[in-house]
User: Fold this.
Amino acid sequence: MAKEKKQEQNTNEIMEKIVSFSKRKGFIFPACDIYGGFANAYSYGPYGAELKNNIKKMWWQKFVQEREDMIGMDGPILLNPKLWEASGHTEGFNDAMVDCRKCKKRFRADHIVSELTGQDMEGDLEGMNKALASLECPECGASDWTEAKNMSQMFKTQMNGFDGDVYLRPETAGAIFVDFKNIIDSMRVKVPFGIAQIGKAFRNEIVARNFIFRIREFEQMEIEYFIDPDMEWEEKFEDWLKLQEDFAMSIGAKKEDIRRYEHPENKLSHYSKKTVDIEYNFPFGFGELFGLAHRGNFDLLSHSKASNQKLEYFDPVNNRKFIPHVLEPTVGLDRLILTAICSSYTEEEIDGDMRTVLKFPYKVAPIKIAIFPLLKNKPDLVKKAKEVFDNLKSDYMCEFDDNGNIGKRYRRQDEIGTPFCVTVDFDTLEQDDSVTVRDRDTMQQERVAISELSEYFCKKFN
Ligand code: GAP
Assistant:
């Protein structure tokens, strides 16, 4: 019988295990490892890249393909800096940093205060400095802090032919607002409608930490959902929260590991009517996964004023023009990947043996089917297994493996979360042209005729 071990382990241990497992199994590597790494950045290895693509595809399918009120776009990373002036990022996209004078370690000031006192002082520099005076550095125990001060999160660069600083975008949303006019001029959209985008964003975080949870180069999947300013928005807001939670569960998060955090009124941006974070219970504690904000008409109005362009919508039914308000559901793709790995990572005891298995939902799994010849040194078995592989590979991400004994091959596929393994054995050749299909979760095996494999997997995966 399988026995869950996950809850028994301490949380740091689980995180350390996940980081080293991700590297060992080809999911996520420290970037520039041979040079000693770089700035806590990570590369996605072969299975990580598949996992990432699968989650992107699922998100695009749910929020663009299957909806009549949504369209997609893909804007550049380097955008006119006027955009970031109008949105307030150039001036105000800051975090507070503080250094320990003794051990020279750098911290995000609001994070260190909240970790040591439980108080949320984000944005309150004076409060942070006061609180820090009586706090000890968690690294060295000294209480000798520099003054907490704001640091811009914007990455600057230069561009040929352009005078002045250019920025790597700190969020994908900006590109959507500045393309609003082109979209309503070229597409027959009717408010309410949304524009979705997936892409890289860059933030000069004071400290990158918690594996891929907080990194400086990451991917966002953002939506700007434009609504009539006069509409009752509360129900739509609730719908979006629910859709985001459902999406988290579709990649494997358990309901009990998801919670909502509504920003208190004194923490809301001046233009926001309501902001709610959807948090996931990572091994290091609850952290923001999704955000949902009612941003009013702040963005379209700011860009309209700064560009001298009318960013309005004409409602032909009521014959009126207005600047739509916007609901902004947003999520970090890297945080979703961490969620998928953390929620599916399982260690089980099977008849006295331990097995590690990623119990990914099928759509998330990097490899869907692994195909094995029972023995590597029997050309007929290998030839037949290759034929099975060739027949399935255009419909599913498959892996061919003839290395080691069959038990080890099953374990290897369990570890990377492959839902099914197909084995070609002597009965395949000598008896009925059928193969063994082994299920990752139940570990049960059944015989399936090769001629029926396509239909068999079609049913399993749909
Ligand atoms: N356009 C709104 C916006 O950017 P945000 O809460 O700053 O809002 C959206 O970011 C999402 O991006 C977050 O909910 C989080 O999932 C992800 N995110 C933000 N900073 C991140 C970082 N440094 N590393 C990884 N993901 C990050």
Notes: The pocket of glycyl-adenosine-5'-phosphate is lined by residues 171, 173, 203, 205, 214-215, 218, 220, 222, 288-291, 328, 330-332, 334-335 (CB under 6 Å). The longest strand covers residues 217-227. Confidence is low (pLDDT under 50) at residues 1-8. The first helix runs from residue 11 to 24.
